[in-house]
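In response to reviewer comment 3 from the previous cycle, which asked for concrete evidence that the modeling workflow produces usable outputs, we include below a single protein chain processed end to end. The sequence was submitted unchanged, and the resulting structure tokens are shown without manual editing.
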Amino acid sequence: LAQQVHSKIVGLAGRDLAPYLNTVMGPWLEGTCDVHSAAADVAMTSLKTAFPGDKLRNAIAYCDQGLAKHLKDRLGSSPCSLSDVKVADPLDAEEKYTRVI
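The workflow returned the following structure tokens.
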């Protein structure tokens, strides 16, 4: 559902998304690796729709600093920082952490 909403917002925003691209590209690319294939497919389709042909490669190159920050934040995370420890089972939190990293 999150990827579908993201796809709709990107479609509506169009070129107005440009100032925010560095912020959203990391999670967007991360969505293409979702364990749920339907969500990963939506993320990949929305990327290819927003950036047809070589434009995707150019957009990724443009976002190099934002992508590096996103990866650094992810690599510096812990199971507790990626899940709500009040409601998440510790084993589920650890599995989520393993998938993300």
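The chain has a mean pLDDT of 86. We consider this sufficient to address the reviewer's concern, and the full set will be provided in the supplementary archive.
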